[in-house]
Amino acid sequence: MEARLDLFSNPVAGKIMKHFTAAGKAVKDAGLPESTRELVLLRVSQINGCGFCVDMHAKDAAAAGETAQRLHLVAAWREATVFTDAERAALELAEQGTRIADAAGGVPEEVWANAAKHYDENQLVALVATIATINAFNRFNVIVQQPAGWYQPGQFA
């Protein structure tokens, strides 16, 4: 499979991706646990059907020490017992923030309130930015049919 566009050599795509990447890196200083961030990146990518990002974030999370069990269960996090209440709140916010069109009023207040019980304001900003940024990356990759499977952990660090 070949991508419709080469996002890695196109200069316009390079400029855009540079800004998306910078936004993603800005959240690192907000205090959101890296494991939570990786779980959110993986879950949103699963929802959006972005094979490239699923591959990338599963590999990066594993390289950072995330267990195979948790990575395998993130798609079924509601039924899994391996996630903390804070992680569950983040995953729920990620799902609701990704599926905005499915809810007439956007993210339900109870979902936001639950996340706010577990994360401070800076962490919430980081969580929202992570959700928004990975949705943008997913859409780029899905639209151009970016193939998955070749990513190496930390390749774009």
From TrEMBL:
User: Which InterPro entries does the UniProt entry name for this protein?
Assistant: AhpD-like, AhpD_core, CMD-like
Q: Which residues form the Carboxymuconolactone decarboxylase-like domain?
A: 16-95
Please indicate which superkingdom the organism of origin belongs to: Bacteria
- Which residues are the signal sequence here? none
Q: Which GO terms describe its molecular function?
A: peroxiredoxin activity
| Keyword Oxidoreductase tagged | yes
Q: Which PANTHER family match?
A: 4-CARBOXYMUCONOLACTONE DECARBOXYLASE FAMILY PROTEIN (AFU_ORTHOLOGUE AFUA_6G11590), BLL7811 PROTEIN
- What keywords were assigned to this record? Oxidoreductase, Peroxidase
Q: What is this protein called?
A: AhpD family alkylhydroperoxidase
